[in-house]
Amino acid sequence: VQLVESGGGLVQPGGSLTLSCAASGFAFRTYSMSWIRQAPGKGLEWVSDINKSRYYSDSVKGRFIISRDNEKNTLYLQMNNLKPEDAGVYFCAKGRFEGIVIRNEYDYWGQGTQVTVSS
Fold this sequence. Notes:
Radius of gyration: 13 Å
Distance between the termini: 37 Å
Structural class: mainly beta
Largest sheet: 7 strands, mixed
Shape: globular
Low-confidence stretches: none
Number of helices: 0
Order of helices and strands: EEEEEEEEEEE
Mean pLDDT: 96
Helix content: under 10%
């Protein structure tokens, strides 16, 4: 299994960024996928899940959109109206169990991509 994030970078507050996670080595379409982030000096924070439904943390609801392309084995996170508190390393993670979403149950993680929100 391999998960490779990309798309991070520097963006001004109020700006947008789209992250990608290229997946390989497993049946992508049958597993839930998630985005988790880690702000500098803080712990991991769950951001969003996608299976057949989409789930968001309150801190990003209405601003972020999770999606997936099962033909391309790719997970996305469109981030709009970014705030300084959205800065951090964003990880994609594969759900441990096939077909269902269980929060915080991940068996593979990507290496992360850095998002910086600053003017």
